[in-house]
Amino acid sequence: MDYKGCQAGKHVLCEKPLSMTVAEAKTLLDVRASTGVKICEAFMIRSAPQWQRVRQLLDEGRIGELRAVAGVYSYFNINPVNIRNRVETGGGALYDIGCYLVQSSRFAFARQPKRVVALVDRDAQTGTDKLTSAILDFGAGDHGAGDGVSGHAVFTCSTQQIPCQKIQFLGSKGRIELEIPFNAPNDRPTRLFIDSTGDLTFNGITMESFPTSDQYTLQGDAFARSVFENTEVPVPLEDSIGNMAVIEAIFRSGKSGQWEQPEQ
Fold first, then answer.
1. pTM for this one?
2. Of 97, 108, 196, which is closest to residue 152 (Cα–Cα)?
């Protein structure tokens, strides 16, 4: 994180993850307060129209009450000098790509999970996590199971697995699936699928298409507007701190083998 840039009065759009610890992320609250600059973590999906449509569909109750989020994000990279495989600079599956799955789950349920449990498999050579799977227990809430049934998120991320990007939002009356949810193409429209029938032959699924765009450009435009109009950034620091708290809890669970509570 560019503290010097902030202290010089420069607004900062920071590549994810914003930090490697909750404690480090929290120091930015004082930096923001003392300088008045805008600081935003670069989760470009938050500015993408297909993800904004997911938020709208969930809020409208299109799939009923949200019960679960299920996701996979992986690629294959075993180069030991690649930054993604360097533990000292925040390499590994969870920091690099699992952070999107944590962000997506928190975005969908619009709250923090109460506890998490995880399995973490580390590479013997690099020390980074090459395969991490987690369950996030969101409990009951306004955007989850309002009838008292808990909402869960499950995901797997890996740096040594066939490239794959999948995420589904499953509700009491339907489900939503995004096509190529994280690295959305910038040369063709993106698509979103809504299943309100539960027909396992895929009949009855409706598709929505979104015009070709570059989600990184949209992210930059949204951040610029927050600067020029003095409005909230797409991903506030408080949200980033919450994301890092879940990541820390997942790593703790990987060591303890027990349910762990994210720092509040």
1. 0.93
2. 108
